[in-house]
Amino acid sequence: MIRFISFKKIYFVISALVIVPGIVSLFLWKLNLSVDFTGGAIWETGVSAPDARKLEGFLGKKQVEEVVSVQSTGDKSYLIKFKPITEERKNVISDVLAKKYGEVKETRFETVGPILGGELIFKTIIGVVLAALFILAYVAYQFKNKMYGISAILAMFHDSLVILGLFSIFGHFFKVEIDTLFVTAVLTILSFSVHDTVVVFDRIRELSRIYPKISFPELVDKAINETIVRSLNNSLTIIFMLLTLLLLGGVTTKWFVIALLIGTISGTYSSTFVAAPLLVVWKELMEKRKKWTKNG
Fold first, then answer.
1. CATH number of 4-34+116-295: 1.20.1640.10, 1.25.40.10, 3.40.50.300, 3.40.50.280?
2. pTM of the entire predicted model
3. CA 208 to CA 279: how far, in whole Å?
4. Class for domain 40-112, per CATH?
5. Which InterPro entries match (predicted)?
6. Are 81 and 66 in contact (CB under 8 A)?
């Protein structure tokens, strides 16, 4: 049997090495929010520009300051995101493009007001907080111990920091935007992480009934050894599917799939190497507290 818990400090150091740069990035550069949250316009159009970078550069030269980003969505098709603009201003920009590249074929033009964007941010935060509270209550009730619930939430918080931090870095260096698809990815990741954590916790509970006399760290080691293969197989299945989507999917879903990939890896890691060791640390602290109380 592999003594996983004996390396718990190493697991926490690995987590810190991934999370700390992300936290620094969040403080320095924050998140690059899309027009879904900040308000603005999305214009999908067909233009015979060589690529997205040259199209964005041309718009910059023409002092079209409303442009936030330009993404290629296919052959001579682009998704242009603007700060809040009117239909009339969009038509002016369309004329500018037509003079340079010829015919401009508009597929769609959508606007999102800043009030709607702010409301979406508020609802997203409320949704995540409520989900965390329900998970805390459910896990604590099922396992008759609040520390199980707290450990599950900390593992979930770990995964949130990993993905938010990395996407803050991606946003700064690669101009990756945080949109509603990203929120969907985060919520999916958190549910996966909690599910994996509950599987490990459930095995710990079952083994504590079968082996009531063995130490708690040994019990957790045994639970991890018995669940890790299943957890890895489950995660690898998801990863292979996501890699296929990444290779064959479109540009618009690329970063959504990357978010799911990062979250799957982080969730698999945290359920086994963060949540379970946290239970052991908590148990050790409680035992030390009892000794101090007796000696005092």
1. 1.20.1640.10
2. 0.90
3. 13
4. alpha beta
5. SecD/SecF_arch_bac, SecD/SecF_bac, SecD_SecF_C, SecF_bac
6. no
